[in-house]
Amino acid sequence: MSVAARWEKQGDIGIITVDSPPVNALSAPVRQGIFDGVKALDADPEVKAIVLICDGRTFIAGADITEFGKPPKGPDLRSVQETMENASKPIVAAIHGTALGGGLETALAAHYRVAVPSAKVGLPEVKLGLLPGAGGTQRLPRLIGPERALKVIVDGNPIPAPEAKDLDILDAIIDGDLKQGAIAFAQDLVAKGAPARRVRDIPIDASSLPANFFADFRKGLAKMRGFPAPEKIVQCIEAAVALPFDEGMRIEREGITELMASTESKAMRYMFFAEREVAKIPDVPKDIALRPINTAAVLGAGTMGGGIAMNFANAGIPVTVIEATQEALDRGLGIIEKNYRNTQAKGRLTAEEVDKRLGLITGSLSYDDIAGVDIVIEAIFENMEVKKEVFRKLDAILKPGAILASNTSYLDLNEIADVTKRPEDVIGLHFFSPANVMRLLEIVRGAKTAKDVLATCMALAKTIGKIGVVAGVCHGFIGNRMLSRYSAEANKMLLEGATPHQIDTVLYNFGMPMGPFQMTDLAGLDVGARARSEFPDLFPIDPAFPVFADILVAQGRYGQKTKAGFYKYGDDRKAQPDPDVEAIIAAESEKRGVERRVISDEEIIERCIYAAINEGARELEEGIALRPCDIDIIWINGYGFPSYRGGPMFYADTIGVDKVHAAVEKYRQKYGERGWKYSSLLEKLARAGKGFADWKDVV
Q: What is the pTM of this model?
């Protein structure tokens, strides 16, 4: 018997049980166990059919990702599949938990598949910049048709068992005990004389495909720009339709080999591990006792406060929303309900689910109504004195042990905490707008924040569907501090000769969802201008460079809402370059005596992206960020940095930190320390020929 699998007989049914905690991943011992088990049971004359099942909480959850990039150990998965597929006796894969990636591909090599109703199956390789490399692109189209298979593989999302049954991925749903149900299914196959049905032999009727199917599907891939895997997947499905199985498998192997070596897939695999790494806080014990979070409150029913409240309701946690006036409260609660009803109208929630979530949200005008909650999140406007007064009130009212959190984006959390008698209970929970949609939660650790408070909030992030990343206290924390450098350089380049459209186009082509000026138009130029006017300490301005948004606001150009900002807009809301804006910018350059020049695309990338990287390096030096991966996770999930580039710090490693450092030094010499502050870490890495992956080696 294998250390990872065992086999036995129950009557005339052979049973192979994989037992390799925690998720029965397709490690070399698991592959060997299945291979040996099939061989042994297929050779046993008493066995008429075979069931493949797993112990523990799941079926084979997928490939053993820790083997990626390492020398292969036999037998490989394709050999295991061929052994299963060529067995003379029907093999039934019995699925519970998840069968994803290689797990589903293993099940597809079985002759039949059954699952419990709660199981999920899928081929999520595209989310790692890959394609299913063990026959998934060849077997699934034969089983469910190329149209449905292409959508399943390119989406990469898990499919609930009932839906998988409707798609013909599964042959039956087993209610009750899976093992006994699978054995009964196998016995029924034997009684009927059912053959060992090989999926590879199922023909595809190409005549059923719509005209220009693949060409039309490719048009829809435009939104997945920068990701090579979807196109490779299309090529593999085309091969499944047009070529014999073995030839299609050759195309699939070539595709997976090419993608495995690509920078894009390496970046996405890095992000897979980074999401898990950021959950680890070095000085916080794994077994630390967490504070219970059974009730919550949010101060402020505006866009941010309402979105935060929805997160708690979505997780089944009752939440009270506090506002200063009934009018503001009614407006905020109304927007929350509208958001839920819109989701219902799109078929993503039922009416019952919406009513349940709305029932968990209560409005109030009195702090007394939240005295007993476990956590309060303050989401009012950025004013230090107002926030201090709020935290004094919370300190006086809330029960001992309650967590006092601020959603501040920039302010000094330590200063806020120090007005309370319990600074150890104060923490920053910086949500990103829209808070009910964006995955990122920047968790700001104050100087006196207790370890159990930090651990509780990290766990809470997971509960409400967020990726929690720890940041230290500084102006703008991790993400906004870097963004300020990115945005400042974009504004400076306008004065020196670039146009909004040029800068936005270059950064969009780099992979950002939109450039800084289109983003400003979308958010509203007046919003930022008002914040800069009311809170100048929060947004220090280099007097040598104008803030063009403020100049445009003075002319009544607020962005999309007025159909004029950095761009002009028609009824379709599409941004069009505006000669009037370019004239305003040119006039400002002349007024300040700046001779306009041609600015290259390369300079735009260097001055925006490299400036952010340099600031990230300084955050690592100062301990504001724990690791480079924390910065990368924040910028991908909060600021739209392209995941196929792996975040700004990973991107620096791919192009060479020495190249980044040389460019940073060039601009530091030209513009001075104000915008390009020296980073000793960046210089040390460059001189040592290392990247941020090895940053600890030079600290």
A: 0.90
